[in-house]
Amino acid sequence: MNASETLHARRRFPMDEGGGVRRDDTQAWLSALRGPAVPREEAIADLHALLLRAARFELGRRRESLAHVPYAEREDLATQAADDALVAILSKLETFRGASRFTTWAYKFVLLEAGVKARRKAWQGREVTLSDDEWLVPRDAGPTAQEVVEGGELLEAIGEAIRTTLTPHQRQVFRALALNGVPIDVLAERLGTTRGALYKTLHDARRKLRATLADSGLGGGHEL
Amino acid sequence: MSSDDRNRDLITRLLGPDGPEVTCDQCFELLDQYVDLEVAGENPDAQLPGMRAHLEGCPACHEDHESLRDFVTRR
């Protein structure tokens, strides 16, 4: 019996047809994960197997952006995502409010981990220049929103507001995220900050731009 | 897609949604509940205001939402 068969033989939480666990298993998961050592260790192994399945699903969705990454390395990414998610889940287990199925709650951790790792891997080696004097364009990117903004009469006012209304930091973050499509997790890693902090900056920048355009009576047919 | 539609999409991408929205951390906190309500055929936007606007404005949280919804509903 190989390792996979061994795991399956002792699995406490049978898979449904879609590969997930059955719908009414939240209490069983919580009891096992909060229970005595032996059933707890078995439940942790089962949970890790589910997380690994979810991580592979997520990386599979992103296969196009990861086409340059060898299979073994993608598997390693999936395992890392499952490992990191398991640690996060076990450390936050007592915060589970029961507002969703336990598995939905658990899956969000591993899908986040896998998504972040995939975005960072896809952008590994790609330069993100953070000069306030330059548009932030990765070397191998295609046409950017910047080009569209500069080329469209309707959007010229937005370009002007970006140049004149935003602080240098807001301009950097806005250009990277909204104009050049740099993934927020990639930018957060490069700047040593968090997704939430960067999104707050982006949100404040957008609010300023909306106010500037509204003051100029440039709402037009678009809801600004 | 017409040129007006393209401009509208671009403006939404640049300026994001109007109105109040949750933060990225709050979005992650509520995402599992939001998805389970969606899957159950209920109206998550009525119960969790601010989520929809954030999911439209934050590309990374938008992707996380799609991933979770697609994974729990996969066949």
In short:
The complex is a heterodimer of chains A (224) and B (75). In chain A, 63% of the residues lie in helices and 0% in strands.
| N-to-C CA distance of chain B | 31 Å
Rounded radius of gyration of chain A (Å): 23 Å
Question: What is the 3D shape of chain B?
Answer: globular
Helix fraction of chain B, binned, reads over 70%
- Topology as H/E string of chain B? HHHHH
| Helical run tally of chain B | 5
Integer count of domains of chain B: 1
Number of helices of chain A: 10
Total strand segments of chain A: 0
> What is the domain total for the residues of chain A?
2
**Rounded mean pLDDT score of chain A:** 82
Biggest sheet layout of chain A: none
Give the beta-strand count of chain B: 0
Strand content of chain A: under 5%
Q: Features of this protein?
A:
heterodimer, A: 224 residues, mainly alpha, Arc Repressor Mutant, subunit A, 2 domains, 10 helices, elongated, disordered N terminus, B: 75 residues
Write the layout of secondary structure elements.
The complex is a heterodimer of chains A (224) and B (75).
Chain A: H1 3-9, H2 26-33, H3 37-61, H4 71-92, H5 102-122, H6 145-151, H7 156-165, H8 168-179, H9 184-191, H10 195-215
Helix pairs in contact in A: 2-3, 3-4, 3-5, 4-5, 7-10, 8-10, 9-10
Chain B: H1 3-15, H2 24-39, H3 44-47, H4 51-57, H5 59-72
Helix pairs in contact in B: 2-5, 4-5
Describe the overall structure.
The complex is a heterodimer of chains A (224) and B (75). By secondary structure, chain A is mostly helical. Chain A folds into 2 domains: 3-122, no CATH class; 145-215, Arc Repressor Mutant, subunit A. Chain A has helices at residues 3-9, 26-33, 37-61, 71-92, 102-122, 145-151, 156-165, 168-179, 184-191, 195-215. In chain A, helix 2 (26-33) packs across helix 3 (37-61) and helix 3 crosses helix 5. Mean pLDDT of chain A is 82; it is low at 1-10, 16-23 and 133-142. With 75 residues, chain B is mainly alpha-helical. Chain B has one domain. Chain B has helices at 3-15, 24-39, 44-47, 51-57, 59-72.
